[in-house]
TrEMBL record:
The lineage of its organism: Eukaryota, Fungi, Dikarya, Ascomycota, Saccharomycotina. GO terms for cellular component: actin cytoskeleton. This is Calponin. One of its GO terms (molecular function) is actin filament binding. InterPro entries: Calponin-like, CH_dom, CH_dom_sf, SM22_calponin. One of its GO terms (biological process) is actin filament organization. It holds the Pfam family CH. It comes from Zygosaccharomyces mellis.
Length: 202
């Protein structure tokens, strides 16, 4: 059987399908909304004109976001949670991104809604970066709705499980003939049921 090299496969990998699905959820307008939330609303500074991913790539803005959100739960004059600095060293930039991700985990953002460092630093999956920021806004809004507006729908409140009715008293103790069935003492012998022998049909 011959193989046509260079031909595009009929199906795409699952990871690529999921990546495309995430990316389709973020129009340019949705990305601009996240940018306004991060810079104007949380950091109280002008929104930059460049791409959001480019603004986040060195990790500084992410660390500042984490400090600003964490500051709402901290006493006044407490030192920032995350230390950061302007640097062009890739390792240090990625470390600053990792510190932001660690803050998100501790803050309550689910693991499946967090990006990996390479998703941002190498721009492998910008959509999951946007999703992380949206998720962080939901958890921040849940704690401080007056300080942090939410991006998209708010977190749903988990409804308590409805109470389970208690069993009647006659079903609580031990084995219940009413619950599992009762044959009134019938057995194979009393019912004339014989296994392994020829039936007597006369």
């Amino acid at each position: 059987m011959s193989v046509e090299y260079g031909k595009k496969p009929d199906c795409t990998p699952l990871d690529e399908d999921l990546k495309n699905l995430r990316h389709s959820k973020f129009s340019q307008g949705a990305v601009d909304e996240i940018k306004v939330w991060a810079f104007q609303t949380i950091l109280h500074e002008p929104v930059p004109s460049g791409s959001l991913i480019g603004s986040l790539k060195d990790g500084i803005v992410l660390c500042r976001l984490a400090n600003a959100i964490n500051g709402a739960d901290s006493p006044p004059n407490k030192p920032p949670l995350i230390s950061y600095k302007q640097t062009s060293v890739p390792f240090m930039q990625m470390d600053q991104i990792s510190q932001f991700l660690q803050f998100c985990r501790q803050y309550g953002v689910p693991e499946d809604e967090l990006f990996q460092t390479v998703d941002l630093y190498e721009e492998k999956d910008p959509a999951i970066v946007y999703q992380t920021l949206k998720s962080l806004s939901r958890y921040a809004n849940k704690r401080h709705p007056d300080l942090f507006p939410v991006l998209g729908p708010q977190l749903a409140e988990r409804k308590p499980r409805p109470p389970v009715k208690n069993k009647p008293a006659h079903l609580k103790n031990g084995w219940s003939t009413q619950e599992y069935g009762f044959m009134g003492g019938a057995s194979q012998k009393s019912e004339g049921i014989v296994f392994g022998k020829r039936r007597d049909v006369t």
